[in-house]
Amino acid sequence: MSNIKVVKFGGSSLADANQFRKVAAIIKSDENRRFVVASAPGKRFSADVKITDMLYACYEKAAKGEAFDKDFDAIEKRYNSIISELKVDISLEKEYENIKDAFAHRAGRDFAASRGEYLNSRVLAAFLGYDFIDPAGYIKFGEDGSFDLETTLSLLSPKLKSIENAVIPGFYGSMPNDTIKTFSRGGSDVTGSIVARAVDAELYENWTDVSGFLICDPRIVDNPKTITTITYKELRELAYMGATVLHEDAIFPVRAAGIPINIKNTNHPEDRGTMIVSESADISKYVITGIAGKKGFSVINIEKDMMNSELGFGRNVLRALEKNGISFEHMPSGIDTMSVLVNTDSLRDKEKSVLDEITYRVHPDHMEIENNLALIAIVGRGMRKARGTAGKIFSALAEAKVNVKMIDQGSSELNIIVGINEEDFEDAVKALYNAFVK
Ligand code: ASP
Fold this sequence. Notes:
Layout (H helix, E strand, L loop, with lengths): L4 E5 L7 H12 L4 E6 L12 H13 L5 H18 L6 H12 L4 H20 L2 E2 L16 H13 L4 E4 L2 E3 L5 E3 L5 H11 L4 E6 L20 E3 H9 L10 H7 L3 E5 L8 E4 L12 E14 L9 H11 L13 E7 H4 L3 H12 L3 E14 L9 H11 L4 E6 L5 E7 L3 H12 L2
Parallel strand pairs: 1-2, 1-7, 2-4, 3-4, 7-9, 8-10
Antiparallel strand pairs: 5-6, 9-10, 11-12, 11-13, 13-15, 14-15
Bound molecules: aspartic acid.
Aspartic acid (ASP) binds next to helix 7.
């Protein structure tokens, strides 16, 4: 492992000249911050529009053969104001002409969106005096459109080894035929992770506008505490349940190499942020690491006498779901009952077909679908060692008068998931936070 730090700055960190100044100060304060991945300019204020969204809208017009000059002018203005305010020695006029020409020739939606990070990285590289590297030549997707890590590393690692400092646009790479392809939205996080892997970085710093992950949703609990350390596994559990900040796919390239990610705040660089690590010896201060949850689940309750002795019962129920293209979340069961929890959206318009298929396959005595359920995951590596965590969870929920409809503890003892009515969701999260953190 090297002592290199790869730093990625999100859209709000690079939204205007002032943010650029903060970013440059952060980069220059540590000489190990050698490789910089940049997003497109994001929102400057909450009603503002991200450059990426402006580009999508602009391209939509171009693709329909409509005039898009005015829309493109607004994009140029954003970059030009950064350039002039910072007095960067660069002109993007030629680039704008090329891009407009490509739009008129229907260069594709992905190409259009990618220009946001491309142009921003050109400006940032000039401002910092760093090399600019176009990921189109190094970050590669396969024929089927999935990201190709092996080919990417074989191209990117040697390139970066020969360079001292560089700015690399996030969000895109190219297909085998060299057309531009982007990751899904927020994909600059993934680029940062790939670059960190390619240089075998000591650390991947992901700079954003919050000081890391919060223990729970701040829209439910006022000012929740920040998670100081979280493992990749815990993060997967919380992210699946709706906690966001980092793109889900950003974990994999660095995780395999044991490179930690530090989520940091560009506006408060002194905050420690959240460290995401493979394993952690330090038990979190609060036994639990985080609480996350989602609404919008349904449960199919199935009853049949002597179910327990019927070979293949569970498989047949799941086959019925599989035939309808539905995956399940949890499957709590009793001796003669089985419940299958699914996402309500995935069941839409298929309820009858699913029930008919289950009836045909297992002939239940009784069956019903219950809607409006929420799931809450209480996640923490500390739970394995601490006795009484489940007791604490259920007494907190009971005190808050929340009825628990389902309980599931993962085999790794990393999480306990409870199913409750949607209307109890906020009360339950508050009760759990207060029980463990306050
Ligand atoms: N600019 C892209 C987006 O808005 C990618 C990114 O910022 O990560 O989704």
